[in-house]
Design goal:
This protein has 407 residues and is an alpha/beta fold. It has helices at residues 28-34, 36-41, 44-48, 96-106, 141-146, 153-163, 180-191, 270-287, 293-302, 323-333, 367-401; strands at residues 3-4, 57-62, 76-81, 108-110, 116-119, 126-131, 168-171, 173-174, 195-199, 225-230, 246-251, 255-259, 263-267.
Length: 407
C-alpha cells in the first residue's frame, strides 16, 4: 500500500474524522508563532540572509497541492495526475496532505510583508505538484491501492518530475515493498542531478521487540536522502522508523502547515520532517544549481546539529538538519565533484549478483582500531589456548585417578 506519511491532523476548518486531535483552531495571525521552534531549530533566519530559494523548483509527489492557498499563490504549478481513474468521475482531489507538505517547503505567507500564515523553509522556491497518492477518505482509495495499473505511479511520477526540470523531489510517502521500476527511476533522477528526499516511515513504535524499525521505500533506496523525525527535545520521535537507511532528521512533532481552502493544520510524522529537509535542499540548489546529489547529501550531514555519540546512529542519522550550516558546508563543497566511474561501478537500477560489483577499495584505514582489534583477538586466542591446556591437564588427572594401577 502506498500512503502519505502520516495522515495530517487538522487544527482548523471542517472535521475530517477520528484522526483529529482535540486542538484549538489555528488562525493566520498565530500560525507564525507556532512555527517558531522549527525556524529556530533549522536556523532559518541565518540561512535566509544567504538565499530564500529563488530559482529552485521542488516537485511534491503527493496527493495534490492547492495552488490557490494564500500562502502558496503564485508558487505552485499543477502537473500530471497519475491517479486519474481511481476516483469516480467528477470527484475532485482533496489535496490535503500535498498542500500541507508544499507549504512547509515553499510557503511564503501573506498579508503585510508576508508576516502572516505559513512561511516555508524556501519561501521563494517554486513547487511542481505531481499527484501520485489519494487521501484515505477519497472514494477511490481502495481501488488505487489494489489495481495493478497504479503500481508504478511513483516511478512514473519521478521520471515525469525530472523531465519537467525540477531540482528536488519531495517524497513524503511510504511503501513497504520496493519495485525495480522505482529503483530505476531513482537512478534516472540522480543521473540528472535531481535530489530525492523521502520519509523514513512511521512504524517506529510498532516494532514488536525488534532492534530496528522496518525499511520504507523509496527512502531506503541508495542515493535517496532518508529523513527521520525528532520531537521537541530533538530526540527520535517515538513513531519515527530507525534503521541504517536514516541519513538525517528534522522536527516532526506539532508542525504547523497549510491546508486547502486557506486552512491551517498541525500534525506529526516523518512526512513533515521530510518536507522541511526538502526545503533545505532547495536552498542549497538555489545557491549551487549544479551541485550533484551526493554532495548535497554530504552538505546536509556535514552541517547537522545535535550529532549522536559516535557521529551516527540509526535513529536520527548524522543529526538534525540546519539550513544555515548546510549552506555553509555546500559553499565549501561547491568546487568538488562526487561522481563514480569505471567498470566496477554498481548500476543502482539492478540488484547485486554473483560478485559483479568487484572488490571494495579501502579509502580510509583506521590503524589504531585495527591494532586494538588485533590485540584483543591475540589475547582471546591466548586465553583459549590456556583454557585448553587446563582442560587437558584436568582430564589427565581424572584418567590417572581411575586407572587400574591406582585401584
Amino acid at each position: 500500500m502506498l500512503r502519505g506519511v502520516p495522515r495530517p491532523v487538522l487544527a482548523a476548518g471542517a472535521a475530517v474524522g477520528a484522526l483529529l486531535l482535540g486542538a484549538p483552531p489555528a488562525y493566520p495571525d498565530d500560525v507564525r508563532s507556532g512555527q517558531r521552534q522549527v525556524i529556530e531549530t533549522l536556523e532559518l533566519q541565518q540561512a535566509w540572509r544567504v538565499t530564500k530559494g529563488a530559482g529552485a523548483t521542488v516537485a511534491v509527489l503527493d496527493s495534490g497541492v492547492d495552488p490557490g492557498h494564500r500562502d502558496l499563490t503564485g508558487s505552485v504549478r499543477t502537473g500530471k495526475d497519475f491517479t486519474a481513474g481511481a476516483n469516480p468521475p467528477g470527484v475532485p482531489p482533496r489535496r490535503l496532505h500535498g498542500t500541507y507538505m508544499a507549504s512547509l517547503i515553499a510557503g511564503h505567507g501573506h498579508g503585510p510583508a508576508g508576516k502572516q500564515g505559513i512561511i516555508g523553509v524556501a519561501p521563494e522556491a517554486d513547487v511542481l505538484s505531481v499527484r501520485v497518492i489519494l487521501e484515505d477518505e477519497e472514494p477511490g482509495f481502495l481501488k488505487f491501492n489494489t489495481a495493478e495499473r497504479f503500481e508504478d505511479v511513483v516511478a512514473r511520477g519521478i521520471r515525469y518530475a525530472v523531465d519537467e526540470g525540477v531540482d528536488v523531489i519531495n517524497l513524503s510517502i511510504s511503501k513497504e515493498l520496493a519495485t525495480a521500476k522505482e529503483r530505476a527511476a531513482v537512478r534516472y533522477a540522480i543521473s540528472k542531478g535531481v535530489v530525492l528526499v523521502a520519509a523514513a516511515g512511521n512504524e517506529g513504535d510498532r516494532t514488536l521487540g525488534r532492534d530496528y524499525a522496518p525499511y520504507s521505500y523509496p527512502a531506503a533506496f541508495p542515493g535517496v536522502v532518508a529523513v527521520g523525525a525528532t520531537d521537541r527535545r530533538l530526540r527520535r520521535a517515538g513513531f519515527s522508523n530507525w534503521n541504517p537507511s536514516v541519513q538525517v532528521a528534522a522536527p516532526g512533532v506539532d508542525i504547523m502547515g497549510a491546508g486547502p481552502g486557506d486552512e491551517y493544520w498541525v500534525g506529526r510524522g516523518t512526512s513533515q520532517a521530510t518536507a522541511l529537509v526538502s526545503g533545505v535542499v532547495a536552498l542549497i540548489k538555489a545557491r549551487h544549481p549544479r551541485m550533484s546529489p551526493p554532495l548535497v547529501a554530504q552538505a546536509l550531514t556535514a552541517g547537522a546539529l545535535d550529532r549522536p555519540p559516535g557521529g551516527y546512529d540509526t535513529s536520527t542519522g548524522f543529526g538534525v538538519v540546519s539550513a544555515a550550516r548546510a549552506l555553509a558546508a555546500a559553499d565549501r563543497l561547491a568546487g568538488h565533484t562526487a561522481v563514480a566511474t569505471g567498470a566496477a561501478v554498481q548500476d543502482p537500477g539492478r540488484p547485486l549478483a554473483g560478485g559483479r560489483a568487484g572488490p571494495v577499495k579501502v579509502v580510509v584505514r583506521d590503524d589504531r582500531r585495527v591494532a586494538v582489534s588485533a590485540a584483543i583477538a591475540t589475547a582471546a586466542g591466548a586465553g583459549a589456548l590456556a583454557s585448553l591446556g587446563v582442560i587437558f591437564t584436568l582430564v589427565r588427572r581424572v584418567r590417572r585417578a581411575h586407572s587400574p594401577q591406582d585401584a
